Amino acid sequence: MSKALVCSCEDVTVEDIRHAVAKGFRDVESVKRFTGFGTGVCQGKSCLSAVGALLAREKAQKPEGIVPFTPRPPLYPTELSLLASFPVDESKPPVGGVPQELDTFPATLRPEGAVPTRARVVIVGGGVLGLALAYNLSLRGETDVVVLERGYLCAGASGRNGGGVRMQWGTAANIELAKRSIELMGRFARDLGINVWLRQGGYLFMAKTKAVAERLERNAALHNKHGVPTRMLTLDEARDVVPGLSLEGAQAVSYNPEDGVIFPWPFLWGYANACRKAGIQVETYTRVTGFELSDGLVRKVKTDRGDISCDTVVLASGAWSPEVAKLAGVSLPNEPHRHEILSTEPLKPFLGPLVSVLDSGLYFSQSMRGEIVGGMGDPLEPAGLNMGSTLRFVSRFARALTEQLPNLGHVKVLRQWAGCYDVTPDNSPILGRTPGLENLLQLSGFVGHGFMMAPAVAERMAQWMTTGASDELFTRFNLRRFQEGKLEREDMIIG
Amino acid sequence: MRRLPDAASRGKSITMDLEGETVPAIEGEPVACSLIAAGESVLARSIKYHRARGPYCFSGACSHCLMRVDGLPNVYTCRVPARDGMKLERQNAYPSAKVDVFEAIDWFFPKGLDHHEMFAGVPVAEQVMAKVARQLAGLGLLPTAPAPERLPVETVRTRVAVVGAGAAGLAAAQVLAAQGLPFLLLERDSVLGGRLLSGVPEADAPPPPAEGLLAPERVRTRVTVIGLFDDEEGHLLAAVSEGTGEPRLVRVYAERFLLAPGGHPPMLPFENNDLPGVYASHAASLLVRRYGVAPETAALVGSGPELYALARLMTERGTKVVAVVDLKGSPPADAPAGAVHGSEPKAHGHNAVSGFSYQDASGRRVKVACDAVLVAVAPSPSFELARQGGAKVEYDEAREVFAVVADAEGRTEAPDVYVAGDVRGARSAAQAAADGRRAAEALVQSLTQAAVGGKS
Ligand SMILES: Cc1cc2nc3c(=O)[nH]c(=O)nc-3n(C[C@H](O)[C@H](O)[C@H](O)COP(=O)(O)OP(=O)(O)OC[C@H]3O[C@@H](n4cnc5c(N)ncnc54)[C@H](O)[C@@H]3O)c2cc1C
User: What region holds the FAD/NAD(P)-binding domain (chain B) (predicted)?
Assistant: First the structure.
């Protein structure tokens, strides 16, 4: 069949690029995510300039707005076993990293014209939480909403995460939220018309120390109480679930077959499309630069495209939340922490569940496309909005991964990248009203699990916002708890 | 593709095992080269539509030649030297790459397949699709054995690291050598020279590097740089060295980085541009110049001086050039006879190129029979390392590529990163060499100034 290919690694055609442009994805980063071009084995070497030329020719973008996507290391596919050989001094904290153009979206990418001068609700941040909330507001009839996003959709953690969704948590609140989210994810395509590729292959948690093993056991009992079918596996059973898995040193293994993985990117378009259809404005490449306050209320949101007066502002800026809150004089206890992650060449399916060693924070799964996607926290990572990629990470990760699944040694890494966790002192989110600024609502602090919580949290928050009915979620997780010392500690954090 | 008569002398004749069949090869030559010379044009099936694929770029910049080699998935057969008894398997095809039943996907979806919206929300279809997609996903199989223990990482400290031994990198290295400055030149290929040796010949190009041009301890071949990172000590290049056979990781710390990695052969979007038998000009010139392998008849499409130079090269080496189509304008006065201005190129054929057509200036569609289509367009600058080091990259509207922004001396926004050659946007070999020299001189000066500044 006759087709004109642009990216032959991923079979992306000229028509696909045009289709993306017609759908409103007009910059290289967005087109990349929508079509998948440049995400295959060659990582854009053969297609990037051709796509740039197409966007220029289609007048999708001014020449100054045609900026390349960030080239991710490694430059050529590189075996995990080789990367694992790089020596790492574990006693020293990581530094720097391959830089990313995240602060410098060219002004030409900004949509022309001003933003609306007034809206009932302004949501700061077009990540999964901001968009999910906007969508849920529209379901309840509130469509006088503007979502402001300083970059492209997927620029924040929502475009950079591992796509893991699980019900295995340490607190009743999180178990219930995750359960509901997974239910909503299963219906996402029906409700919003976009496939998000939920695959319930389970989550297999491994504990290598006694303390963590006890935690897994205790939590499994809690899961069962909430109807989550988590089981403690024997090592033989675990081997059956993941053939080839090394269980050396494993003290306990828990497994819930209903956990799974999703493909994060389409979530954002799904929500954004539905919002736009309902009349909500989703403004990308629009940055919030300040707030106008008086009498304990936010009156206006200032942006680099004009000011918007409003009744309610929602702070859903993920790892940037402390920075944005500061613009309103509010100090949040959240801290951004870099988390690095990588993806390998795609392989035919062989790995069912997402596997995680809870002690070290190693996790890996096989995506719908066949890639092994995984990451591992670094205990020495300093706080900061750093999204650089380091050799230290690929080395630590490659070593830990090949220890668990030795046959991955020859498998090649295609790209590594980083995102920021939005970490709170108790690993639980900040939700609800801001003390002293009543119409500033908090929706941040989701650490490494905001994606899987978004559908359920957004549903509850939209309900709470539009009906005024009280919901304990917004008191339990209120900012006030940090002053009052009533922390909501979650202990099943991968990281 | 066929071997030219003088090709027999190029190496030892061996055989490889292609899915149980014995195919002839020449030892040390890229596997993909031996395969196409043996008449095997389909090496792979594409990931989504299962389209037939044969090698395109011969420089590890596309994915058309990936095969399972000795049990390892997704190996660039355009980069791996042939060895006797090598076991080759095509991937992503059932029951075989030649008769792949999944090829039907390509035919069922002539307008392409939007997997975001397809069957979204259609209750049963959606679930079936998810299951089918999962089974069809991925390229290659998980290896059945762990990798061997790797050699310990080698650490090199030098004052200047030069990446790429083409015209630009070599000229730069010569300047550094003349100045007596410790440097290390890293080259991915097994020989120095880059385009000077394997590219389309240029009249004013500098001569290919002579034996002993640079001291052996200053040069490393078969070293692929994979990233420009930083750590506690500052910027470093991470590279995979295959010089001694066993791959090992090398890290190179330097005070300055002179990046001259050239460019990647891009895809030129036209109908069936991925058909086996469509080659980048770089691939065609490399095959004919280094390995003596060339098509019988070829159509050429593209723009710029490389298009015409390639036509001359192919004709000289016995390929019948049946069309030379310039997409950007009328051919210059000295263009080979028969060259025309045309548009809407298209490759024809089922699993391999059998013809080529285009629209001529009067709007008429012209079709010719051929067994290869050669695409000559400006390479896409390999800006990745420079960008990772902090340099700026911009879209160059005239050349339709992303290129590193640098001043005339090759200085970038990152004080320790210099660039030269095609990485700045397509250059002739002579310009690239001049770039290399200038950048090296500026770099030497910056080091001297730094030393003086440091003392004061
Ligand atoms: C490596 C990694 C792996 C992860 N793995 C998982 C996982 O497996 N499962 C899971 O559930 N979660 C995971 N997470 C966490 C998850 O991605 C986040 O919790 C979630 O995406 C947060 O969504 P958000 O909308 O709050 O933030 P974001 O997606 O970061 O959105 C915030 C947005 O605000 C924008 N913004 C910032 N400042 C401004 C401003 N001044 N004006 C306008 N806009 C602004 C940003 O550009 C950004 O797009 C992972 C995170 C990382 C980094």
Answer: 159-434
Helix A28-35 to helix A264-277 angle (10° resolution) is 110
Distance CA A335, CA A118 (A): 31
Do B260 and B305 fall into the same domain?
no
- Counting every residue, how long is chain B? 456
Helix, strand or coil, per DSSP, at residue B303: coil
Give the closest residue to A315 by CA, choosing from A299, A327, A304.
Answer: A327
Q: Residue B453 — pLDDT band, cuts 50, 70, 90?
A: low
The per-residue pLDDT of chain A, averaged, comes to 95
Cα–Cα dist A23/A38, whole Å: 19
* Two tokens, residue B369: 């029979």
Are A320 and A431 in the same domain? Answer: yes
Indicate which CATH number applies to the domain containing A458.
3.50.50.60
What CATH number is attached to the domain comprising A59? 1.10.10.1100
Domain count, chain A: 2
- pLDDT > 50? residue B328: yes
Question: In chain A, which residue's Cα lies nearest the Cα of B109?
Answer: A1
Q: Of B137, B167, B198, which residue constitutes the final position of a domain?
A: B137
B451 Cα: distance to centroid of ligand 1 (angstroms): 45
Same domain (yes/no): A319, A447: yes
Q: What is the ipTM of this complex?
A: 0.95
**Is residue A152 in some structural domain?**
yes
CB B249 within 8 A of CB A82: yes
Q: Does A176 touch chain B (CB under 8 A)?
A: no
Minimal Cα–Cα distance from B16 to chain A, Å? 22
| pTM of the complete model | 0.96
Position B290 confidence tier, pLDDT thresholds 50, 70, 90: very high
Overall number of domains in chain B: 3
Ligand 1 pocket member A337 (CB < 6 A): no
DSSP strand pairing (B355-360 vs B278-280): unpaired
Q: How many residues does chain A have?
A: 495
A347 and B139 within 8 Å at the Cβ level: the answer is yes
